[in-house]
Design brief:
The chain is built from four helices and ten strands; from the N terminus they run E-E-E-E-E-E-E-H-E-E-H-H-E-H. The chain is an alpha+beta fold. A four-stranded antiparallel sheet has the order 2-1-4-3, with no helix packed on it. Strands 8-9-7-10 form a four-stranded antiparallel sheet, with helices on both faces. Helix 1 crosses helix 2. The termini are far apart. The relative contact order is 0.15.
Length: 187
Amino acid sequence: MYRQPLSPNDVGIIIGNPFRRGYPFLSLGILYGQVCGGAPSLHYIARGCIIVDMSKYKDLKAKRNVVYRCLFHVVWCPKYRRKVLVDGVSERLSEILHQVAKELEAELLEIEIMPDYVHILCEVDPQFGIHRLVKRLKGRSSRLLRQEFPSLRSRLPTLWTNSYFVATVGGAPLSIIKQYIENQKGV
């Protein structure tokens, strides 16, 4: 049992709810927790709850009721895989994607736009979902690019295909994934 008094200067995250009978690991919440220098990053407290020292996990993100690190590699292409993402289209596409991600509180860590497909490494809140992020990225970019570049309207019935590829970036180092996406131009 963890019995040291908690002070407002100590910050951590509690995992589990000691007040929920029989279900100690079902909820997440932010709590002021004892985070001592040199102490282990996990402290056990009553009924199986854990306080996690967030200073040791700087790449984690936290919202009101969730702590996460969800990285996704996403790839999609234009309709008929036409090479239409050239000249000013690719630069404007990048601006639109960054703008939409910022509005949705997602983070685009890496973007590589090829003439016939788009690679993105992104992080998104799991409660919002990667499917909603991709839907908004593709939807807004298609609408704005087709308005700004009339050649896209005449060559394609829609800008993007209905499908996309998504994979979680689990144990792979982030630098390796970024390097892979950057090197797509050379392939």
